[in-house]
Specification:
alpha/beta
Length: 255
């Protein structure tokens, strides 16, 4: 299994998941050219991808969607309401629609989309399960609902949001309306909220935790890591590796 955050942050997001016979992307928030460059950096030919999954329609998650699908004839999986709204899906014949909670398979991976709270149309997180274990992805969510926690149980690898430090956001340069949006139930998880979610997901099989979507204005890697360390240091159930996703270069884990 190999997991790589090709990019993570407000300027663009994309995640590579390789497991068994399957190689796919979750989100395409960089240009198609930059996505292919990042894939090259980690030794992956873009033409070898099996599918692209999209979490929601914000530009930092779909910027390269249309061009990448057109260039590669790449199957793209979209929530039904989202599929009918996006202006550029690349090639309509490449689109596969799914409903919230409706499992589907991509080669030897079982994908389960689940609803999350964010200020977008029908946003989802994903779990991907196969012989090498389960991967859970939940970023761009304002709160960790009971459904989110249930879906993310027993993951070998987690990609969780630690978007902002609450003090930095409160005292930072954002206008008040934007601060309220980020802090809302349809915004983004803070470092402490991400830590609280992780606390509910600890189990002996957890190998790795990626921290994603860090704000360049309202957070820093040290603060995010400190919040997660406070959770991990108080337990003896597992000792996962913790990796911070970066905006400008890939962050990779392999086992």
């Amino acid at each position: 299994m190999r997991i790589c955050l090709l990019a993570s942050g407000s300027k663009g997001n994309s995640l590579l998941v390789e497991s068994g016979q399957t190689r796919l992307l979750i989100d395409a928030g960089l240009s198609a050219r930059e996505l292919r460059k990042r894939l090259d950096l980690v030794g992956v030919d873009a033409a070898s991808l099996n599918a692209l999954l999209i979490t929601h329609e914000h530009t930092d998650h779909v910027r390269g969607l249309g061009p990448l699908v057109r260039q590669l004839d790449l199957p793209v999986y979209l929530q039904t309401d989202l599929a009918r709204k996006l202006p550029d899906v690349g090639k309509p014949e490449c689109v596969h629609e799914f409903a919230d909670g409706e499992e589907f398979t991509v080669n030897d991976l079982t994908v389960r989309p689940f609803s999350i709270t964010h200020d977008s149309l029908a946003p989802v997180g994903f779990t991907l399960s196969g012989e090498q274990g389960k991967v859970g992805v939940a970023t761009d969510l304002g709160i960790a609902t009971r459904l989110v926690k249930e879906c993310l149980q027993d993951c070998r690898v987690l990609v969780l949001e630690t978007n902002h430090d609450e003090v930095m956001l409160r005292e930072g340069p954002y206008p008040w309306s934007l601060k309220q949006r980020v802090r809302s139930n349809h915004g983004h998880l803070s470092n402490s909220a991400g830590g609280s979610l992780l606390q509910d997901l600890l189990w002996q099989g957890l190998d790795t935790v990626f921290l994603g979507h860090l704000s360049e204005t309202n957070n820093c890697p040290k603060l995010a890591l400190d919040a997660i360390s406070q959770v991990l240091d108080k337990q003896n159930v597992c000792a996962p590796e913790v990796l911070v996703g970066r905006q400008n270069m890939p962050t990779m884990w392999a086992a």
